[in-house]
Structures are given as structure tokens and as C-alpha cells.
Amino acid sequence: MKTATSETIWTMRREEEVMGTVVVLDLYADASVTSDALAPSLRAAIHELHEADRIFSTYDPASALSRVSAGTLDLANAPRVISDVLELCRDARELSDGWFNPWGLAGGVDPTGYVKGWAAQRALEQLRAGPARAAIVNAAGDLVCYGVPRTGELFRVGIVDPFRPDSLVALVDLRAALATSGTYERGAHLIDPSTGRADPRLASASVSGPDLGMCDALATALSVAGEEMLAIIDSLAGYEAFIVGLDGTRRWTTGFALAGVTDYNLTAAV
Amino acid sequence: MVVLGAVIGLVSMASFRSTPASLTLNTVAPTNTSAIASTVSVAPMTTSPTTSPATTRSATGSTVNYNFGTLAVQVTVNGTKITKITVPSLNDGGNYRSQSIDAMAIPVLTHEAMTAQSANIQSVSGASYTSAGFTQSLQNALTQLGI
User: Fold this and answer.
1) What is the CATH number of the domain that holds A204?
2) What dihedral do alpha carbons B94, B99, B103, B108 form, nearest 10°?
3) What is residue B140's DSSP assignment?
4) Domain spans, chain B
5) Nearest chain B Cα distance for residue A106, angstroms
6) Which helix (H) or strand (E) segment is B7 a member of?
7) Could you give the number of structural domains in chain A?
8) Among A174, A153, A169, which residue's Cα sits nearest to residue A251?
9) Are A230 and A201 in contact (CB under 8 A)?
10) Domain range holding A257?
11) Are B145 and B84 in contact (CB under 8 A)?
12) What is the DSSP string of B33-76?
């Protein structure tokens, strides 16, 4: 039987500038797996991210999504993934009781709050199909993983303290996806659809679950809706939440894989 | 990005060395990295002792452009271990959006770099806006320190 102490694992990191941010992909491979063997799945993962960027960019007026939104491209003639994502956005809108609403603003549909997580999830699926035993993708603070870095040990990740950005508020055992949304990120997707204002009710909202696109959308909804959204997420199979209130109070759903509430300071720790 | 990847790899190696209790793996370096060596770094985990002298030094990276202006990153190391990352120079044009992004993005970026040294945490979640400019300047600062 293989034990943890006899395991030989090496890691490979790729930092890819895409979707207006940097996506970090960490692959964990057994000693028998060469970097050449990892390359095809890594290339496929990177390709997913750039495809998502090309199709869904709201900054590029020539992107398929921009043209659909402007009414110059018929949805039926657009890449199929746009219809797919809009359908998933409708699901997220329904599950979030309307708090996540890409149609809530003037100027057409903006699924940005879903796409980054969705794309990172698709990149991860490409890695999963490859020879790496485990991998974790960090799309600007939204995380998704498969496998374990070592036998008997889950991926352990931290949630940033919204008030003291050099600290963490929680440690989490990650089995799939975790997205965090906060007041400091006042993009259009954090506008309250009921008031039309950027008016978050929480300092930080994290959602874990099986799919990063949905986690991303629910974290956005939670950040805007506040604690009433906690009960909704708690009722969704597989999804859990952790919040930091505007007064610093931390609350989480009972199933949230909290490995520790912490004041761990990264700067002080080294 | 190439050198930075290698640097981060080196730094995380150093940190793993300093925390043997949390990592008990043997090291196997990949046999061939040429296929994707231009953009990928390999960070083997190891518990072997480091021989780097533990002296504290710091350097400021070159000022680089990023999405909203210019920034420069300062890094402080003890031996080969990063102990502090700051952004002494940041010019974001002063508009609200870029300031609010910077207020969070910079700390998260420092998190990501520091996290590479924390053997007990594999990643960090937080609303953020990351910038290649940050890593570019950090790379430059570390290069100045010969790391």
C-alpha cells in the first residue's frame, strides 16, 4: 500500500494573463508523469480560458457577446456556448431568487459574473482529463480543484480578510469550487438589481460548491442580498457559504468546510 | 513571466525546506521541461536543508505599466525567503474604479506571492483584480537580489 511518506509528487505552475486578469493553474503530478505528458491538457485548459475571453469579452465591441448584446448578432448565429451560458445564468438567477441578474442593467445582458468561474471550471475539466493527479485553478481569487495534493490531505485554501487585506479570515478545505465576492469589487455585476445601486450588504461573501460558475454567481448574489441569501444557499444541495458582515461578523452555513477561523497574518507568519 | 515562474518556484522550494514538518515528500525533478519551458515553471517539493545565508535584503522592481497606470513592487527577503512585499509606487490616474481595484488587488497579489511560501495553504480566495504588471515588477526586484 502506498503511504503518504513514500509519495513522490511534483508541481507545475502556469500563470496565464487572460480575461483581464491572471489565472494561476497548479498541477500536481506523480513522479512517473513528465511535463511533456502534462502539456496537452495544460494547453487545452489555457485554450478554454482564451476562448471564453474571445467570445464573452464585454470590453471588446467585436466579441460575439458584445454583438449579441448590441443586437447586431443573432443569438442563433452566435457561438453555441453563449446560449449555454445564458441558460446557466437563468438557472443562477432563479436559484438566487433574482439577486444574481445579468439582465438587471441597461445595455443588454452582462454574464461577466458567471463567465470567469465558468471558464475556470472548463479549464479545470481539461486538466482533469489529463494525467495530473490533482490540480487547482485560481481565477483572480475564485478557485476550483480536483483531486488531493497528497493522499489523505485536501487542498487547504484561505479567504482574504476584507478589512485587513494582509490577513486571512478563514481556512477552508477545498473539494471543488470556492468563489469570493466583496465590496471592493464594485463592477456592474455587484449592482443591486432592486435598487440599481452598487450597495453591498456584506464585506465579503464566499460560496463553495461543485461548480465554480454557479459559486461565482451565488457569491455575487450573496454579497448584494446579504444574510437573507444565506438561507437560500443553505437550501441548495452541495452549496455552502461563508460571510463577513460590514461589522466584521463572520457567519457560515453548517456544511461549509471550514478548517479554521483565523486571524492568520501572512506577513507576520514568515 | 518566464523568470518569475522560476523565481516563485525557487522561493516556494525554500519555504518548503523551512517547514519540513508539513511536507515529507521526496523530490523528483521532471526529466524534460523543454516542451513548455517558455511559460511553465516547475517547483519540486523538497525537505533538504537550504544553504542560503539568512540575511535580510530588499529591492524595488522596475516601474511597469499595468491596466490602470504604473506600479513598482518592493520585495524584502531573508536569505531566499520573501518576508515582505509592498508597492511603494503606484500611479493609477486617481479615478475611483482603479483606486478601489488597487485597494484590494495589491494585497491579494502580495497574498499570492506570499502563499507560495506557506506550505499549509495552496491558494487564496478573495475578490481581486490581478495584474501581470505586479508580477513583472516583482520578478525584476527578485532578479536584482539574485534570487
Assistant:
1) 3.10.520.10
2) -110
3) H
4) 2-144
5) 19
6) helix B2-18
7) 1
8) A169
9) no
10) 9-269
11) no
12) -GGGTTTEEEEE---SPP-----EEEEEPPPEEETTEEEEEEEE
**Residue B31 pLDDT exceeds 80:** no
Q: Is B78 exposed, middle or buried (0-12, 13-18, 19+ CB in 10 A)?
A: middle
Q: pLDDT tens across A203-256, in order?
A: 899 999 999 999 999 999 998 888 889 999 999 999 999 999 888 888 899 889
Chain B residues with beta carbon closer than 8 angstroms to that of A178: 125
**Which of A8, A15, A143 is nearest residue B26 as measured by Cβ atoms?**
A8
Query: Which residues lie below 8 Å from residue B42, measured CB to CB, with a gap of 6+?
Result: A10, A11, A12, A13, A35, B9, B29, B30, B33
Mutate to test the interface with A, among B101, B102, B125, B139 (most CBs of A within 10 A): B125
Q: How confident is the model at residue A117 (pLDDT cuts 50, 70, 90)?
A: very high
Which DSSP state fits A148? -
Beta bridge partners of A191: A198
Checking ipTM against 0.95, whether it exceeds it is no
Instruction: Decide if pLDDT at B103 tops 80.
Output: no
pTM (two decimals): 0.69
